[in-house]
Write a structure and sequence with these properties.
- It contains 30 helices and eleven strands.
- The protein is an alpha+beta fold.
- About 10% of the residues have low confidence.
């Protein structure tokens, strides 16, 4: 449920972001991809654990104690209170309240999955109905398009490569405009956007913002299609807008379709006549990055470094054991491996543990007998026998009340009956607790004690870390340190690399990412070489008698430097990757290097532009890659005759979806000496070649495209 609610929260945040900043922008293709990416990330982001330094949530490094439901007491056996989680601070002392809490949780889960089932069935049903109509009605094949004839007063729509329409309802011009409109939907794959949105609703059916999000996606697809149709055809806007009014129908198509007529007629008319957004307003789209970073920091679980350790897992399984049950054993040298099985509420629980032969007293062979294992926490009594190297029988555990009293005196409270069994199985000893306390750890809790012992965090291990320079380590930090096998040599290696003020938390992050002291040394060395190369000086050839100017990054806080190196490691930014750009003469800042790596920018991508004579900076590369600018896109303008383009102009052209064919069409209309600014202004205002041609037919013959741009602006006003 936390995942489902996290998705709902992220989806809501994305919708608010879109409504506040992007909804009124006319960058419809970009809005489409932003909405799709946000939808996909809303479902995928909560699943990704993040390094601890990037999350505000506390890593769950403690061994969780699994809740057992209460069962009816066996005859003659006193009833025990249910075990609770290690992180629970209070208990339900009344049995009725406990069952009430469980039933409410189950009721919520059942209601959620019932809703999922209902909406999933509805989704499949709609899909079936659309496919049935597509292949049961009369059809006209038009290339890749299937025009399915409808009957009655139903609005036209499209799904996959099918266009549904009643041709008897419309005159030829209106019919033709509808078909062109729906063909754009099909050519651009808008049905897949709607399918993804509908699938999201199956799992977010309870979230009203998810329904609004789907509507926003659908609206933007209509704006996008209207814009494409008017920009790339000879249809007059007034005629097209009139056809929208004519197509109004009371029966709307299935929600899985993209439809020509919707309840947003007024919005569509407004957007068609709206002034085109200025390219300078694209900065708004960058706000999505910090938005997602905030969600990651608050919602994503930090890497639980000790969670997967086998010893901690084993201690968790001991919580499922009963104090009595059946045992099965095998003798292997001087070890006896015993598997404990118990049955609770019809659930078979089993755990295993190895004991040394020296611990087992009076091991019966050949005939039934008793033997036991005694530890500080209590005694495990066995009844049964061994034949050769295998044996079986029954067991019963008796806790040591004196040990429980000792733990209470040492400040370890809230001990339950089954905790004593766990203490016995992982072999918690009095001298272990005394050794930990002797090192200054007075606040030992049950939650810390279990994983500390299970992971064999000994006083000697703690001393070795402190000797290596890792001081002020908490018990909670010792658990992931040990689980990740952070030893004194690893700590010394990190310290010797030049980072002397690293905390235990940072040490955990470094180890989890495979960052060693050797890696940090190499990274710092490569970084110095890169900065020297960018400054066009050799690190060993500074002028004598002069103090080299310090780079601001060198004066930065050690922790900030380390965070950057960790980020580079996580993103696999190798020295070779950085050198691949400097080898081609491109200076790249460290921050931009991270951004370029995240976008998949390569040296070959840069070379594709530089070999054609285009000067590109690292900032340009980031913008160009994010917009999908390719070397082929740049070459197409050179082929069309538009030379002398700068990287900034190329970015502006791409952001407005200007194609080289637009430039060619304007030249065919008789315009000479067209500049890049002319093309950008024309595209931004919707002054298309079709519009210019129509104005020329009406007698408006001008030599400059600026005159037509002014006409278009006046028409919009």
């Amino acid at each position: 449920m936390f995942y489902v609610l996290s998705v709902a929260l992220i989806l809501t945040g994305c919708l608010v972001f879109y409504k506040l900043l992007l909804q009124n922008e006319t960058f419809f293709p970009l809005n489409r991809y932003v909405l799709l990416v946000c939808l996909v990330l809303s479902f995928s982001l909560p699943l990704m654990p993040v390094p601890a330094q990037f999350s505000f949530r506390k890593a769950n490094v403690e061994a969780p104690i699994i809740i057992n439901e209460p069962v009816a007491p066996a005859v003659g056996v006193p009833q025990q209170k249910p075990a609770v989680t290690a992180t629970t601070s209070t208990e339900n002392n009344e049995k009725g309240s406990y069952f009430k809490d469980i039933s409410i949780l189950k009721l919520v889960l059942w209601a959620y999955w019932l809703g999922v089932a209902v909406f999933a069935i509805n989704f499949v049903f709609q899909l079936f109905v659309l496919l049935y109509r597509a292949y049961s009605r009369p059809v006209i094949i038009d290339g890749r398009f299937r025009i399915v004839e409808l009957a009655g007063n139903q609005a036209p729509c499209s799904f996959a490569n099918n266009i549904f329409i009643n041709p008897e309802k419309y005159d030829w011009d209106t019919y033709n405009q509808i078909i062109l409109h729906e063909k754009i939907h099909i050519q651009q794959g808008h049905s897949y956007d709607i399918l993804i949105a509908e699938l999201a609703l199956v799992f977010q059916w309870f979230n009203p913002f998810a329904w609004m999000y789907r509507k926003a996606m659908e609206d933007n697809l209509e704006f996008l299609t209207d814009n494409e149709l008017l920009a790339n055809s000879d249809i007059e806007p007034a005629s097209y807008q009139m056809s929208l009014v004519k197509v109004s129908a009371p029966h709307f198509p299935a929600s899985l379709t993209t439809n020509y007529n919707q309840s947003i007629l007024k919005k569509r008319l407004v957007m068609m006549n709206a002034k085109k957004s200025n390219v300078n307003s694209t900065w708004k789209y960058l706000f999505i990055v910090p938005l997602f970073l905030v969600f990651i920091a608050f919602l994503n679980e930090p890497m639980a470094y000790g969670k997967n350790d086998s010893q901690v897992k084993k201690s968790e399984k001991f919580q499922l054991m009963e104090n009595d049950g059946t045992w099965f054993a095998t003798i292997n040298g001087d070890k006896v491996n015993i598997r404990f099985e118990s049955d609770e509420d019809g659930k078979n629980n089993n755990s295993s543990q190895s004991f040394s032969m020296a611990e087992l007293k009076n091991l019966p062979r050949g005939s039934e007998g008793t033997f036991s294992v005694t530890r500080d926490a209590g005694t495990m009594n066995f009844t049964g026998k061994f034949e050769n190297n295998t044996g079986m029988g029954t067991y019963k555990f008796n806790s040591n009340a004196d040990f429980t009293s000792y733990l209470t005196k040492e400040g370890i409270t809230n001990i339950k009956t089954k905790d004593n069994l766990v203490f016995f199985m992982i072999n918690v000893k009095r001298n272990y607790i005394a050794g930990i306390k002797a090192l200054g750890y007075d606040g030992i809790s049950k939650d810390n004690l279990i994983p500390l012992v299970a992971l064999n965090v000994t006083p000697e291990y703690i001393k070795s870390l402190k000797t290596a320079g890792l001081t002020n380590v908490t018990l909670g930090e010792l658990i992931p340190l040990k689980a990740l096998n952070v030893d004194a040599d690893f700590v010394k290696g990190i310290k010797e690399s030049g980072f002397t003020k690293i905390t235990a938390d940072k040490m955990i992050t470094l180890k989890s990412q495979g960052i060693t002291g050797e890696y940090l040394k190499n990274a710092k060395s490569a970084d110095e070489e890169s900065r020297a190369a960018n400054a066009q000086i050799s690190p060993t050839k500074a002028s004598p008698g002069k103090t080299p100017q310090k780079n601001t990054r060198e004066d930065a806080d050690e922790d900030e430097k380390l965070n950057k190196l960790i980020t580079r490691k996580v993103m696999n930014i190798t020295p070779d990757y950085a050198k691949s750009f400097s080898a081609q003469g491109l200076k790249v800042s460290e921050d931009n290097l991270i951004a370029m790596k995240s976008l998949g920018v390569t040296a070959d991508y840069y070379a594709g532009f530089s070999t054609q004579g285009l000067k590109v900076s690292d900032d340009n590369l980031i913008a160009m890659k994010s917009l999908g600018v390719t070397p082929e896109y740049f070459a197409s303008f050179k082929t069309a005759g538009l030379t002398g383009l700068t990287a900034d102009q190329l970015i502006s052209l791409k952001s407005l979806s200007v194609a080289a064919s637009d430039f060619s069409e304007f030249k065919k209309l008789g315009f000479k000496n067209l500049s890049v600014d002319d093309i950008i202004s024309a595209k931004a205002t919707g002054t298309s070649p079709v519009f210019v041609a129509s104005m020329k037919k009406k007698g408006h013959n001008y030599n400059s495209i600026e005159d037509y741009i002014k006409m278009k602006v006046l028409a919009l006003d």
